[in-house]
Amino acid sequence: MATHKQIYVNLPVKDLARSKAFFEAVGYRFNPQFTNDKGAGMELGENLYAMLLAEDFARTFTPKAFPDARTATTGWVCLSCESREEVDALVARAVAAGGSVPSAPQDHGFMYGHGFEDLDGHHWELVHMTGMPQA
């Protein structure tokens, strides 16, 4: 089985400075060692990072086109939270900073989830789990 020690999710963004300001308003910080005018290393947790890459720079890593994340979904980022209150607080801060909410919160009993879309339309799902689903 393959195992990994870190994860780096790479996301193309149209305006790096604006995206950084958005995520700072939500409550995230950036590692200055991995941040410049081409990309920004956002710290999501211990060994968890999102690399916000200016689109021109991101294109140097792939020949594929970037779909408009406001109208197409190729995937989304899901992060665990310590509580329902943390989930709701992060969504509220994202909305206050200019993000949007793609759907209503979902309560599955063992798991509560809600999410937001950032300025580029990337979907961030936030969940708090209190157990496992019934078999």
UniProtKB/TrEMBL annotation:
Transmembrane segments: none annotated. InterPro entries: Glyas_Bleomycin-R_OHBP_Dase, Glyas_Fos-R_dOase_dom, VOC_core. PROSITE patterns: VOC. It comes from the Bacteria. Residues 5-129 form the VOC domain. PANTHER family: BLR2408 PROTEIN (PTHR36503:SF2), BLR2520 PROTEIN (PTHR36503). This is VOC family protein.
